[in-house]
Design a protein that fits this description.
Number of domains: 2
Oligomer: single chain
Structural class: alpha+beta
Length: 410
């Protein structure tokens, strides 16, 4: 299986050589490799397109009853009309009930309902039509009902879906087609049925490729929109969006959320002495060095100039101190004269600092960063009380960290 996935990814790279980088192709296969901002924006797009699709179905589904009236016997028309009315109400409920929330779970539920409604309609209408012997125009109109699965599978192409997601949503429709054939086992025309099923599978493949192409294009666009062009880390705009999301999640789940405001020391002197190009090199190396030692889920943001913000989800104050110790131990790169780059860092944490807004979290960390600068730079400030250390309970031991932590003590 792993070898097949590798071959498949290699083929994808050949088809889209300039759209995605080598680490992004796996995101076309499964959704769990998507970073949070991409997942949030993709979920919003999926729900918007579900509502558009549902609106069109809500309008067109009952209108077809006019054609049925002239083609079918009155009892069949009434039965199909009741099905159409029920399906139309269900589509309207999807339009009214679902709103973009940025949650993929919500988007999946909306898509599942969107495709479940016509799939159930198809199975039920197939059973009704099979109970009548229709000929001429009536038979031709009845044949049109058999095209509903083709429409649904073709509709998958408007959604930016991974390979796994496309297969997951296509499977029930293919199963419904197979089930409809099995229910008419005695009168089944096997060559026609096999040909129709093969065509459905072919449409599924085309729709899957179309959805993956949309996803690839979206990944590339989101990457360009949310990344700082110089350092490659997240831009301030995307950082604010992500911080807002992480703050909301932390509040709802009563989880920890820490934030580090990092300012490279004496950076202006690098630009003044060695030029802005040298300063850019130092910035890129600092960002790369910090990012190399982060955990999965941590987020590094270029806040402006030589300032970076590090978002640490599910990280309390003590754990954030450990992260800072690791970062400072590995350093922030080298200046053009090969002297080590140092940083002044301010730490804040949602619970410890009793923040009710993510902007307050930024404000506290920023203020403490300036305290670290005033007290000599190259240190971490994690408290507004500078006269005493702070105690943290870790099991049975109590570890004391000074509010201002000089580099030599970490």
């Amino acid at each position: 299986m792993g070898r097949f996935a590798g071959i498949f990814l290699a083929r994808l790279r050949g088809l889209m050589p300039d759209e995605l980088n080598s680490t992004e192709f796996s995101a076309l296969l499964v959704p769990h490799r998507h970073f949070s901002l991409l997942a949030q924006r993709r979920a919003t797009m999926i729900v918007n397109r579900v509502r558009l699709f549902a609106f069109l179905f809500a309008v067109l589904t009952p209108l077809w009853a006019v054609i049925d009236y002239f083609a079918f016997p009155l009892p069949l028309w009434f039965a199909l009309g009741a099905l159409r009315f029920s399906a139309s109400i269900a589509f309207i409920l999807v339009v009214v009930h679902y709103r973009p929330s940025g949650s993929l779970g919500n988007a999946y539920r909306a898509m599942a309902l969107l495709f479940a409604i016509p799939t159930l309609f198809y199975v039920a209408s197939h059973q009704l039509l099979s109970g009548y012997s229709l000929a001429g125009m009536s038979a031709a109109i009845a044949t049109g009902y058999a095209f509903l699965p083709f429409v649904l599978l073709a509709g998958l192409s408007i959604f930016p879906l991974s390979l796994f997601e496309s297969a997951l949503f296509a499977a029930p429709i293919l199963l419904a087609q197979f089930l409809a054939g099995m229910l008419n086992w005695g009168a089944l025309d096997w060559p026609t049925f096999a040909g129709a099923f093969w065509l459905l599978a072919l449409i599924t493949g085309v729709s899957t490729l179309a959805g993956m192409s949309q996803l690839a294009f979206m990944i590339a666009l989101v990457r360009q929109a949310i990344r700082d062009p110089l350092t490659g880390v997240f831009s301030r705009c995307s950082g604010e969006e992500s911080l807002d999301l992480q703050f909301t999640i932390a509040q709802r789940s009563n989880a920890a959320l820490s934030l580090a405001f990092i300012d490279l020391d004496h950076f202006k002197s690098i630009n003044d002495s060695f030029g802005h190009e040298a300063g850019d090199v130092v910035l890129k190396e600092a960002a790369s060095t910090i990012a190399r030692y982060l955990r999965r889920g941590d987020m590094l943001v270029r806040w402006g100039g030589e300032e970076f913000v590090l978002i640490l989800p599910n990280t309390d104050h003590l754990q954030a101190q450990t992260v800072m110790a690791r970062l400072r131990q590995n350093g922030f790169g080298r200046r053009p004269d090969q002297a080590p780059v140092t940083a002044s860092i301010g730490l804040s944490e949602l619970k410890a600092d009793r923040c009710d807004d993510w902007r307050k979290l930024i404000e506290i960390a920023d203020r403490r960063m300036y305290v670290a600068k005033r007290r000599g730079r190259n240190q971490v400030c994690d408290s507004d009380d500078h006269s005493a250390g702070r105690a943290y309970q870790t099991g049975e031991a109590v570890v004391n960290y000074q509010a201002i932590v000089p580099a030599g003590e970490l």
